[in-house]
Amino acid sequence: MDRVELAGNPAAGHHLDLGGAGTEILPRGTADMLADPSALAPANSIYRFAELAAQELGDPHLGVKLGLDPRIVKWPVIADAFSASNVMVEFFSRFLLDAQRFTTRVEFHLRIGAETSWFERDRGFMPADSPAQIDALSVGLFVNIFRLVLGDGFQDREMLFRVCAPEVARIPALGQCALMKGDARKFAFSFPSEWLVLPIRQDRDAASPRLTNKPPSESLIAAIRSNIRSNMADPGLGVPALVAQMGFNRRAVQKYLRDRGSGLSDLIEEERQKLACELLDAQAMSVEEISDRLGYTDVSNFSRAFRRWTGLAPSRWRREGD
Predict the structure, then answer these.
(1) CA dist., res. 122 & res. 212, Å (int)
(2) How many C-beta atoms surround the C-beta of residue 94 within 10 A?
(3) DSSP state of 214
(4) Rg of the Cα trace of the chain?
(5) Residue 133 CB: number of other CB atoms within 10 A?
(6) DSSP code of 79?
(7) CB of 151 within 8 A of CB of 79?
(8) Three-state DSSP class for 176?
(9) Quick one: pLDDT at residue 216?
(10) Which of 199, 196, 190, 114 is nearest to 158 (CA)?
(11) How confident is the model at residue 129 (pLDDT cuts 50, 70, 90)?
(12) I want to staple 140 with a disulfide (CB 3.0 to 4.6 A). Which of 43, 68, 113, 229 is the partner?
């Protein structure tokens, strides 16, 4: 079962007494886990607790209202990512890497397109209990974040959310954000890709120290690698396409990598080599299929590249790995 860490829970300051009957509905030990900031609680317990909280307080829109509360951005996972980021793509890369540490099965994805990008949280299982309130909290949270970061540049009608229960998140405070019905396994939303390269407002929190003009972080490099993997099958994938997709300052990123003995073309080559070895070892695809998956239009080009990487032909690598 998936588990979620409760550390730094932004709702921890809210008082809620579910009473004896309420706590009996929760799995044994859940109350102790909710009180322990270091605990990993079963995800279904969190979903059930959120639904019970909304019922007890008589507010079917509790989750989205909590997400829209300005205080939620003080949540450490969010506050830490903000304080160390200059642009939104860097915030997302930091947030995704940090958030992954607080779960055991959930996967987070940021898919960057030419005009529209998608953020997705895949729980990895179909919850037994409705995650409607948690999804609604996420809707409010990300609207809150973009409003905070973009200021007057934020356009609510440019955001589309896919959640399991749109009616739970639909309140006037969301403005013109679109809500579509999805399944309980995934939460996702889209927004204009150009938002990823807009600067994070300097005045969002005078109390938060930040550095200006700092170089791209290691987490940003992880985001570059992730984007390379996502677009590996594109024969046109190269440094110009990568820079255009992700909106980076090419000179700044190249200098940062060069100082560390690498470069954007090196990252593309490294990811191609790693994926090639993984696919060959998995034995599930032919060499021709792997060549296509890596974006080569001719299998002979893939074979030459693989020999350059490993000193072996793809077929021999596979045989020697058996």
Answers:
(1) 34
(2) 24
(3) P
(4) 22
(5) 29
(6) H
(7) no
(8) coil
(9) 44
(10) 190
(11) confident
(12) 68
pLDDT digits over 24-37, tens only? 333 444 444 444 44
Which segment of 71-75, 96-100, 107-111, 118-122 scores lowest on mean pLDDT?
96-100
Given a contact cutoff of 8 angstroms between Cβ atoms, the answer to whether 155 and 177 are in contact is no
Token match 């409003």: residue? 147
Question: Hey, what are 71's tokens?
Answer: 């205080």
**What are 310's two structure tokens?**
């490993």
219-276 per-position pLDDT tens digit: 567 778 877 888 889 999 998 888 776 666 677 778 878 877 888 999 999 999 999 9
- For residue 39, how far is the Cα from the chain centroid? 22
DSSP calls for 98-130: HHHTTBSS-EEEEEE-SSEEEEEEE-SS--SS-
Give, in order, the Cα–Cα distances in Å from 57 to each of 14, 21, 235: 11, 15, 55
Q: Give the span between the Cα atoms of 195 and 149, in whole angstroms.
A: 10
- The full length of the chain comes to 322
In angstroms, what CA-CA distances link 111 with 143, 147, 260? 18, 21, 27
Structure tokens at 98: 């940090």
Q: How far apart are the first and last CA of the chain?
A: 33
Other CB atoms within 10 A of residue 38 CB: 8
CA dihedral 307, 310, 312, 314 (to 10 degrees): -80
CA-nearest of 108, 97, 102 to 9 is 102
Query: CA–CA separation, 251 vs 212, rounded Å?
Result: 17
CA-wise closest residue to 159 among 196, 192, 121, 198: 192
- Token pair belonging to 8: 């730094």
